[in-house]
Design brief:
Blueprint (H helix, E strand, L loop, with lengths): L3 E4 L2 E3 L5 E7 L8 E7 L6 E7 L4 E3 L7 E6 L4 E6 L8 E8 L9 E2 L3 E5 L2
Parallel strand pairs: 2-11
Antiparallel strand pairs: 1-3, 3-8, 4-5, 4-9, 5-6, 7-8, 9-10, 9-11
Length: 119
């Protein structure tokens, strides 16, 4: 069983930055892709950023140009650098590991880390 542990969330003012980390108990280079998702109160979970096994990345429209996903295979860690944060970025952020031939929903999830953007 793969365990994912997120950290780095917190309270930040609008325009500020945070870096989230997700440490996997298993080597991450064996997964099809790693991703960050978020769920705001009363809303459905949405994808934020994805990084594939060969290194390519994708971003949701609402975070494009502000967030950067990266990975360190040696540390089994995925990062999400979040800049120019907005109040609408407030949510619980989840890390996901998606096996080959699977789907995010059937992959592995962390417990989530709260990000609150407020003055």
């Amino acid at each position: 069983q793969v365990q994912l542990v997120e950290s780095g969330g917190g309270l930040v003012q609008p325009g500020g930055s945070l870096r989230l980390s997700c440490v996997s108990s298993q080597s991450i280079d064996g997964f099809y892709r790693m991703g960050w998702y978020r769920q705001a109160q009363g809303k459905q979970r949405e994808w934020v950023a994805l990084i594939y096994s060969l290194g390519s990345t994708s971003y949701g429209d609402s975070v494009k140009g502000r967030f950067t996903i990266s990975r360190d295979n040696n540390k089994n860690t995925v990062y999400l650098q979040m800049n120019t944060l907005k109040p609408e970025d407030t949510a619980v952020y989840y890390c996901n590991a998606e096996p080959h031939g699977s789907s995010p929903e059937l992959g592995y999830w962390g417990q989530g880390t709260q990000v609150t953007v407020s003055s």
